[in-house]
Amino acid sequence: MRKLDHYVGMSVLLAVCLVAFVLLGLDFAITFIEEVKKINDQYTAGTLIQVLGLRIPGKLAEYLPVSSLIGTLVGLGALASTSEITVMRAAGIPLWRLGFAACKPVLLLAVLGLLVAEFVSPIAEQKANLVDKLQVGVNQDFAITGGSWLKTNGDYIYIDAADREGNLYNITIYDREGDQLRAIHAAKRATQVSEDTWQLQNIQTSTFTDTKVEVSNTKSQEWTSSLKADFLYLSTQEPDSLSLTQLYQYSAFLKEQGLNAGNYELAFWSKVFRPLSSLALVIVAISTVFGPLRSSTMGGRIFSGVLIGLAFQNSLYITGRFSLVSSLPPLLGILIPILICFMIGLYLLKRRH
After folding, report:
1. What are 180's strand-pairing partners?
2. pLDDT (tens digit, 9 = 90+) per residue, 239-264?
3. SS3 sequence, the chain?
4. Which residues pair with 198 in a beta bridge?
5. How far apart are CA 270 and CA 117, in angstroms?
6. Does the keyword field hold Transmembrane (predicted)?
7. Cβ neighbours of 264 (radius 10 Å)
């Protein structure tokens, strides 16, 4: 029985890996074509390839559930097309045993994907975002490249990018007095030197008077602020690019500040339940291979897998976003489609018995 499990498991594992490789290749090619318009003297083709390469680990973790679905359809479908599944069933191997053998490699990959999403993809994704923002901002004086707006000590702050060491890049401070804007300080870089003190570098200051605007440049200047480097860094990142630990910590911080943490909670539960999503889709794949798709061609199985995967991903997206605009907790917004997928798969498997 162990040899049988190994044989079925390897068929599914190789198929899932092949599908993941194809999906990553297609994503890389399509994204490169979409982003090629960014290329200029500063943002070179090499920079674009570096950014897309750094985002591959995150894409791999994201595509694992759908890859598991299509890979299971392909792997078990190949065994069914050569009548090997029929022989196994005729030899008395129960359906649940074949399903268990197919689920084992998928669960292994799902756990691996969770580890990648925690320890590998956040570092790579955040480095990619930093490279992308700093390169794009070179020739676009007024471009907002997806940074973060904050308010501290009555002033509004815009931070274009930040790194893991707590350095801020392209920071703009709007110095106010009451309802009046007194000055705008635009610094290329800021580094925290003590708990409440930052060192600004390469500052251009525009001071507003009743009759004119005075512009001055300074190499270095101290800035007093209660902002914390760790949370400033997290605030400049997209929720999907953060690790589970970072998402949990920043969600707790936002709740303490009385702010909405819905997007970060949604990203947290989406990553936590990815292994469960993979397992639910594999159960659906098993039920269809042994049921309605047992006599289908390979192309038909792949097409069916793509449709099921798209329907599942869209359901996750819709219920997740619905939870952000309603009283539904993000946990349930992610869990409901997964449970429905489980119930559909188990119902189809039960009918096969």
Report:
1. 177
2. 999 999 999 999 998 888 787 899 99
3. CHHHHHHHHHHHHHHHHHHHHHHHHHHHHHHHHHHHHHCCCCCCHHHHHHHHHHCHHHHHHHHHHHHHHHHHHHHHHHHHHCCHHHHHHHCCCCHHHHHHHHHHHHHHHHHHHHHHHHHHHHHHHHHHHHHHHHHHHHHCCCCCCCCEEEEECCEEEEEEEECCCCCEEEEEEEEEECCEEEEEEEEEEEEEEECCEEEEEEEEEEEECCCCEEEEEEEEEEEECCCCHHHHHHHCCCHHHCCHHHHHHHHHHHHHCCCCCHHHHHHHHHHHCHHHHHHHHHHHHHHHHCCCCCCCCHHHHHHHHHHHHHHHHHHHHHHHHHHHCCCCCHHHHHHHHHHHHHHHHHHHHHHHC
4. 192, 223
5. 11
6. yes
7. 23
Q: Identify the residue whose tokens are 């970072």.
A: 246
Q: If DSSP codes are grouped into helix, strand and coil, which group holds residue 43?
A: coil
Q: Helices 45-54 & 2-35, crossing angle to 10 degrees?
A: 150
- Say how far residue 20 (Cα) sits from the centre of its chain: 16
Residue 240 tokens read as: 């999907």
Q: What is the mean pLDDT of residues 179-184?
A: 88
The tokens 């943002």 sit on which residue? 43
When mean pLDDT is compared across 46-60, 129-143, 184-198, the lowest value belongs to 129-143
CA distances from residue 234 to 129, 162, 242 in whole angstroms, order as listed: 12, 8, 8
